[in-house]
Amino acid sequence: MRRSSRKHRARRGTRTLSSRSASRRRGHSAVRRGAQPARSGGTKATGRNGLSARELAERQRLDAQYQATVKSFETAARYFQKQNYDRAKEILEKLVDGPIREIADRARVHLRLCEQRLRHQAPTPKASEDYYNLGVAALNARRLEQAIELLGKAERLGPGQEHIRYALGAAHALLGNADAALEHLKAAVTLRCANRFQARHDEDFHSLAADPRFKQLVGSDAPQPS
To answer: What CA–CA distance (Å, rounded) separates 86 from 80?
Structure first.
């Protein structure tokens, strides 16, 4: 009888522990169910990289503004390199007051250089020889596009001058414009026969050495490209 009584008490104890565990589980479930509405109610819609739609739009606007400013500065730098200081100055004056500090600082430096160059710039050429001299200087410095522009103005102001046509032929040859180079050289040779011998040994026409038209124009002993 005593043994039976002990077993009975043990079973009651087991049921009590099970009841407590079940209560705890029901309590945890209740907490979890109660927390769900709070999470869903506090969620904020975001875009890429965790940004809101408004923040994302603002970032895209600033990126587009930066790219446009960089492009304008690069355009001004190209004008500066071509010594077109007036055009470069016009663009740089807008950039120095821009919202992007690093580009505004660089624009300010280039603007001062433009102003210095303009103060010390030679007088505007007026005669054919003025443009020719500037064109030859650009040709020797291998600023070929600028040379062709200046020599073209010289030729329009003083047509029929062999030295101008010869220089134009050399500039086009260095740029790889074979047809234009041969056209100007042919005119130069027609106006002055000695240009045939000069072109034959002129390194500026080296790119045309293998061209049959060039050989016919200057003579068969034209130097061959190495």
So the answer is: 9
103-159 pLDDT, tens digit per residue, is: 888 899 999 988 888 887 666 788 999 999 999 988 998 999 999 999 999 999 999
Three-point CA angle 29, 32, 38, nearest 5°: 155
**What single-letter amino acid sits at 209?**
A
What contacts 94, CB < 8 A, 6 or more positions away?
72
Give the Cα separation of 51 and 49 in Å (integer).
Answer: 6
Q: In angstroms, rounded to a whole number, what is the distance separating the alpha carbons of residues 200 and 20? A: 111
How many C-beta neighbours within 10 Å does residue 69 have?
Answer: 19
| 215 three-class SS | helix
Q: How far is CA 139 from CA 89, 192, 212, in A?
A: 25, 21, 25
Decide: helix, strand or coil at residue 47. coil
Residue 113 corresponds to which tokens in the numbers above? 């250089």
